[in-house]
Amino acid sequence: MTDNKNTERFDRADRGDTQGRGANRNRRFVTRPKFCQFCGDKNLVIDYKNVELMSRFINETGKIRPRRQTGTCAKHQREVATAIKNARHIALLPFEGDFWTDNN
Amino acid sequence: MHKYELIYILQADLDEATIDAAVETIENLIKSNQGEITKTERWGKRKLAYPIRKTNEGYYVLVNFDYDPQNVAGLKRTMGFNEQILRTSILRVD
Predict the structure, then answer these.
(1) Model ipTM?
(2) Residue A91 touches partner B, C-beta closer than 8 Å
């Protein structure tokens, strides 16, 4: 839940960056989740079959989101990256593009 | 013997009898090489995240099984010959 909020915040920061000089100030105040959610919650398993979970770790162009945005620790980021790649192979996640708004 | 997880995507436009037959063929294929199936799960029709062979939908089947590592490459190859299967993925889970 909180993660969704963070996503929005970062999206806004990205957009602000393209607007020019003053907008850079926004970016400095962007906070990130301080703890890795997989370290914090041992029941949360990284699974390439869990589309809902994995889709939180890709951005709207289908790229894997960096650690600085998601707050994931290095160890779990590696697992997340592998899981996303596995999910892409069986067409659960896109290689590129937004699959939420794409209706055939 | 190792634990493996197989996911394959069948063409979505097949009728139910054909799907049952295809799933059974795969199960027999695994069993014929001393494989032991622990779980089969049919996810059913799902939209694909990107088109495969110009279709946007696929019928997903998940199979958990124990298998001899030497035979995995052969299994994948045999499944590749089946035209009803759009995509396969075999991953070790242990």
Answers:
(1) 0.87
(2) yes
